[in-house]
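Amino acid chain:
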Amino acid sequence: MGSLARNIKPNRNIVEEEHNLKCERCGNIYDYYKFSNGQVFKHGCDCKMIEAGKEAEKKRKQQAINNIFNQSNVNASLKDATVNNYQPQNEAQDKAKKTAVEYVKSFSVKQPKSLILQGSYGTGKSHLAYAIAKAIKNQGYSVAFMHIPMLMDRIKATYNKNAGETTDELVNLLSNIDLLVLDDMGVENTEHTLNKLFSIVDNRVGKNNIFTTNFSNKELNQNVSWQRINSRMKHNARTVKVIGDDYRERGAW
């Protein structure tokens, strides 16, 4: 009480006090003081400290989520993509959009599932995949979107002695996040990088994944390396055909 009184200014006199109260939230025994300016102090109660700790942990987790998402390799044309601004041009694209909405609403790390968005160029597969990634990330999950050609360049860059990350660090990062989107599967044929891609896809069996590809199932089985990758992609995966004209040519003169 003496230490408390030394910190009280004249215009902040104690007008009400109770002792040996029990906090229902933290369980601590505390003394209650109310000052003339309306301020309340609970000496011995840890609720504010616990709340501050939770808030700090929440900010730390959000920063970690942001840092992971910021490592995504994304074409600039996709930055503003959302599920809502995807405009279906046919029944297949409308079904794909509804599937994307369903995936976001039902996302769970306890009941993981994968999507394979398959179809011709320019039908909006990458748009939908990136839109899903952003929506899931905004729910507080760790997410990364990787365009395969850019990812392969990034893997190759790890071999440089001055590289800022190792191949293992990159593979581990992508293997353990809540959702991984791999965009444009089937375009890479360098044996060594395909082995690294297989490691990532293999590590993610039983987790949440989205794959986009312009290749048919037959084309994805073009060689032994892709056969292995394609087999892992299909695990617990729903294939959605996204067909139609190239939307990037609409309105061209």
In short: The chain has a mean pLDDT of 86. The longest helix spans residues 47-69. DSSP finds nine helices and eight strands in the chain. The two ends are 82 Å apart (CA to CA).
